[in-house]
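Many introductory courses stop at the sequence. We go one step further.
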Amino acid sequence: MLVSRGSDAETRRTVWAQVITENYQPTLDFAHWRVGNVDDAYMVLQDSAVRILRLLPDPVRIEDRRNYWLKTVQHQCYELLRQRNIDTARTVSRDTPSNNADGEEVLPSDPADPNRDPEMNAIINEENEVLLSALEMHCAGLTERERALLALRLAGYTNAEIASMWGEDVIVIRADMNALMAKLRYRIMHGTK
């Protein structure tokens, strides 16, 4: 029920303004702890205060007004965290392939680092080429399974995730991955193919 006019509204507004003012700092600390960011905590408190001062619930019917204020802030924190989760779910990974003009799937290119000048960029690109060619040389005799395991490891997947994708036991994947890494270390250290 919205109460917007009259002395009753002014009385309610005064009571709630006093509750909010008296409990501002502890509630701000609580919101900061919940949302993990002081700017978001300020926003939550502002939204909560506007909500209470707009709705003006009857303070006579609410025994613990401080708790009511805290619960309003808590619900706003939940709403903010829920919205963050929704926004995160909508985010597209940079590793997600997109289609080019020919309809072929291509990975997006890495954005340029604004802190790198062209000379530094050329040096890093050259080092990457050397490392990739060395990796390719040392992977020459790997089996298809070893190549697939290495590709997934380099893509950032864990042993458990690979086991889940392949429908295999994580112990088997871990053993194969350890053997593969040992083989690559040996080849790199001894310069063999």
